[in-house]
Amino acid sequence: MELQQRVNAFVKLGHFLSQFTENPNDADIDKALLDGFAHQLKLAQENNGWFTKNNLDFALQSWTDCLTHNNLNKWTNNYNFNATETKTIAIIMAGNIPLVGFHDFLSVLISGHKVIVKQSSNDKHLLPYLAKYLEYVESGFNGKITFTEDKLENYNAVIATGSNNTARYFEYYFKDKPSIVRKNRNSIAILTGNETDEQLSDLSDDIFTYYGLGCRNVSKLYVPEDYNFDAFFNAVFKWKDIISESKYANNYDYNKAVYIMSEFDMLENGFLMLKEDKSFGSPIATVFYETYKDVSALKAQLKSEKENIQCIVANGFNAEEIPFGQTQEPKLWDYADNIDTVDFLLKL
Q: Keywords for this entry (predicted)?
């Protein structure tokens, strides 16, 4: 297959996904194929209580927006695919949010390689169906996509995502293969006290989308000393209905009970707790915060912690920052952990 064939196939996949959004593309797609994926979405919801309809809809809309001719061509124009020798790449995927491993899957196939996918049991229904759709619209993908639940064999390189504990296992197990191994990372927001209500409202989307389960979700705030959280709590109030969802409510109640029994100081509004803590990864329904005095000192501190940070949300803090409300809108060229996956794949 030529690169443009692969691009065209993923554009067609974007058209397919759009049929499950509020503004479907006018592509002519077999109803049986649409019904089949609708069934997989239902199974995904039943299999994982965090994969609510809203979260699935958000994921499908995000990938619909990414898989356009303009985006795919802009992304791929940065690389030379001509000298690529076909390899077999194993991907071990996480399952914290719907289709969380899709970018790795896309990167491998767009690079001209074959892929062996080992999925998380938490997110096992959607990608195999989408892979079959790719094969349906582009026969050149036949034989290039494999899913397995068994031990990985006959591969040239690996991309593995997991916790800090599983990453140590991955690094040892795959020490003889070229690899990208991703560990725990969290996203943070830097507040100054001068944010607008709109910026703080947008920040609430960075916090609550996917229940905060993604590495791009903001799990910690850095605020000036004596920061008044009133404006923040007012701005996040639009997410108040999240407490009516049982899994979230159960986590809220449990973590609140733990904090109370441990006599930890916290602020809360009935659906979100704020706890002062130096850690990055906060539990569900909780956001940690830490105060700062000096911006330069904070920049130095965060630079030393860069291996733990996925995104920094801020306004005028540094060149790498992401605007409020945009952590869950990454572009195809926004790579996890700032590791260029396609560059890695093309240099094998």
A: NADP
